[in-house]
Amino acid sequence: MAKLRFNIAMSLDGFTAGPNPSEENPLGEGGMQLHQWAFELEAWRKPHGQDGGETNASTNVVEELLENVGATVMGRNMFGGEGAWEDKPWDGWWGDDPPFHTPVFVVTHHAREPLAKDGGTTFTFVTDGIESALRQASEAADGKDIALGGGANIAQQYLQAGLIDEMLIHLVPVLLGDGTRLFDNLGTSDGPFECTRVVEAPGVTHLSYRPAK
Q1: Which of 80, 87, 79 has the alpha carbon at shortest distance from 23?
Q2: List of residues 6+ apart from 11 with CB closer than 8 A
Q3: Within 10 A of 94 (CB to CB), how many other CB atoms are there?
Q4: Each residue of 108-136: b (16+ CB within 10 Å) or e?
Q5: Contact at 8 Å (CB) between 63 and 53?
Q6: In the beta sheet, which residues pair with residue 206?
């Protein structure tokens, strides 16, 4: 059965982005530190069209993230920008050949025509909520899993709705002190998560969870 799989990098003090994000610095002040462990991996660099890189305990984790994914759901901030679209809207952070190579469904309040990119990635903008985005992604994935990207706000919505089947947190040993917290605005939970795997790697610890039965 297809799963909704969420993964995100987080600081020790619970932030997924630093303070004062901007178009030039989308992850906020200090936020890039959360992903440095991945930037050095061959398994991360190759899908992004970059050469070189190393292999370590994070390699299998990153390779697994890319396996059996048929579509992606993300929030508007992860796509890029905020507010109403301009007459000639910006096409987001991802360039001409985004690394997804599958359909991507962007949850937003502002309608926009689908945006086709090179390499098989098409961004579809969903304005009627997270359930609709998941339903459309499931249809597009054709039996494969759906990846849930960031940011924290969209993750919180899916967590509140109890729709996440697997959660992978890349815990990075830095303290950002301020920014965007992953586990804010959740209220009470229907039940606990159970830890299914811990992988220690240079600069990061990968923590896998699923809803406890």
Answers
A1: 80
A2: 33, 34, 172, 174, 175, 176
A3: 17
A4: beeeeeebebeeebebbbbeeebeebbeb
A5: no
A6: 170, 199
d(CA 146, CA 73): 7
Q: Where are the domains of the chain?
A: 4-18+29-81+93-211
> CATH top-level class for 4-18+29-81+93-211?
alpha beta
| Residue 137 to residues 28, 65, 90, 144, 196, Cα–Cα distance (Å) | 29, 17, 23, 10, 26
pLDDT digits (tens, 9 = 90+) for 77-128: 899 878 888 877 888 888 898 989 999 999 999 999 999 999 999 999 999 9
Q: Which residues contact 106 (CB under 8 A, 6 or more apart)?
A: 74, 75, 76, 78, 79, 123, 124, 125, 126, 133
The pTM of this model reads 0.91
